[in-house]
Every structure is written in C-alpha cells, then in structure tokens.
User: Fold this.
Amino acid sequence: MKRSLNNLPALLSIAGLANVFLVWQGFNSPSSPMGDLPYAYQPWFDAFIGGGPWWGLDRPWVYPFPAFLPMVLAGLFAPQNLQIGWVVLRAIAMIAILVILVTARIENEEQRAARYRAAYLWLGFTLALGSVAISRIDSVSVLLAVLGALALVTGSQARAAIWFTVAGWIKIWPIALFLPLVAASKNWKRNLLAAAATSAAILLVGFLLGGNSSMFSFITGQTGRGIQFEAPLATPWVWLGVVGASDAGIYYNHSMMTFEVFGPLVADVAFWATLVQFGALAITGALILLAHRANANFGEIVAWGSLTGTLDLIVFNKVGSPQFISWLVIPIMIGVLYRVPNWRLPSMLILGITLLTQLVYPYLYGSLLELEDVPASALLLRNIGLIVALILANVMLTRLGAKRKEPVATV
Assistant:
C-alpha cells in the first residue's frame, strides 16, 4: 500500500528540502534570480544601519514603509549578508505557517486532506516559480496572505481582512483578495472596518516613528515609469524588436533598475495602464456582487473572484516582474481549501504559467534581452496563458452571477 504523505513529518521534510533546493538554485542559476537581496535590500539596510532613513517612512520609496521591516530583520539576523538572513528567516516562517495550515481547526478528514493538498500545492508552485519566489518582498506578502486564506476558510472573515490588509501594506496586490470580503459578504461592514482599523493602526505607528507624506509615496512612485518588457502589455513592442523594427525594442531604465520597452505609443499605453487596471478591478467587484446577489456559494465566489482580481493586477500591469506570478498561488489555495468544483483546470493553467515564468527568468533571460525569437516565444506563450486564465476566471465568475439560487433556510 502506498504510504500517504498527509502527515506532518513528511510535509516538514519535503518543505525543508524544497527550501534548501530553492536557495541552492538561487546561488547557481544565471541572471542572479536572488539579486534583489544583495544589490537592493542590502544597500537599503546598510544605509539604515549607518544612520540613514527608514525607507518609505520619511523618504519616498517604491514600497509601503512596513515592507522595510522584513529587510531590517534579515539584516539584523545576518548583518554582513542579508541574503542569508532573508532566506533562513523566510524558510522558517514558511514552515511555521505550513504547520498552522495543516493543524489549525480541522473538523474532519475531508478538510484535513484539503489542507494538505493546499500545503503541497504551495510548495509545488514555489518550486515551479523558482528562487525568485523566495527572494523578493512579494514572498512576505504571500506568507501573510496564506494566514488570511486560512482565517477565511475557518470562518473568521474579519481576521482574514486584517491579514490581507497587513499583507497589502507590504505589497498592494492583496486588495484582490480583500475585494470578495466586501462585495460578497453579509458582514462586509465589519470586514471593511477591520481593514480600516488595521490600516489606521499602521499609519499611526508610522507617524509616531516620524513618518510624513513619504508614507504614501508608493502610491504614485511608479506612475511615471514605462512598461517593463516582461509585462503582457509590452508584447507588441517586444515582437517589433524581435522582427527587427528600428523604432521599437528594449532598453535599460537606470532609475527603475529594470528593462522596459520603447516604441510608438508606449508612453500612451503606460499612462492609461493603471486606470485600465483599476477599471478591471471595478468590473471584477461588480461581478462578485452579482454572484453574491444570485446566492452563489461563498467559497466559489471568493475563489473565482480573488483569482480574477489578482489576474487583473498582473495582466493590466505595466510592471511584469516574475515574482508577481507568486501572487496567484493564494487564489488557487483558496479554491482548494473551499473544495471548489472544477478547480483543476485553473490550477493546471496557473501551474503552466508559473513553469514558463521560471523558464523565461532566469534561464532564457539573457537571450530574451537580445530579442531572440525562441525566448520571446516562451514569454509570449506565458503572457497568452495569463490572458486565457483571466478570460476563464471572468467567465466562471459571470456564470456564478447568472445562476440564481434560492437562499438556504436557516434556523
């Protein structure tokens, strides 16, 4: 008889090996996939420890000011090599959250099996994305979002709202997870109040620590940037460069420390991208509300709604960093935890997108910058996958709102 892996020692062993492999991979892959740690986070920490600013608090920064805390903790843990401190502390945090995920408030064997499926799925998707999944500030927001997802499925929407809000003060994307808690919940006022109170507390702490208007600089800090060449929106100009057009291609933006596209209408598309992104989120919110009014199953609404919203933030984003794909594991985990019907298709689609993302970065990245057709085709396939996933999620969310069900009587 095949031995089940649905036990804590097996999970912890696999999690430990997975994290060791990811660290090894990060040190031995091309294109420095963990480069943000030594080349961005370490200098920020060194400046701070030398009497400099708490980034985002009293100096403008691309991230909300709480995002600097994990960098400080990693730097204090290993002052001379923040990279080591980061990967060790992140691995410990992930393993601790995995323990909580598979042990907290389990009522039956079916629920226990779903928890273990979600745990292994998280590990699998992290491996599929590679070391970039563990070496960016996004990884901290994902850790916090997993706690929010667990709170959600165990019946505490307000606690989920708090976790998603804290995660949002690390990276803004968990707004897509919070959206169904407002648009599809009978307790939306309480959830909104929990999020507002959490944000107010974070801001109060910031002001008490000497913060100023720089605490809001992350909102507008990237409005003037161009389109990162990996983003789905960049596809036309990437391929104009591939076929040899002289007025389109890729260049390095020194101020943003990333590669962007240039060519006809790039500035116009970049200008409108953020508005389109928030317009897409508004449409998703409306579809979630329609599904709620149609008395659709709450778990299905949250799963499809959060997947749609997260894809909105990726597909219509002028930034296309590979670590953004790590966000998608949370909606997929939510669908598994709620045991949503027909959830294998989006799970496999997102897994394929994740594997292609790792193929593009770091392995094909160098040749992609040379605008070679094979790596550009891999990126194109990944971006088409994202668009297909977004269409699928919108269709399924729309169907939830189209099938009105009679509310279940309660006593």
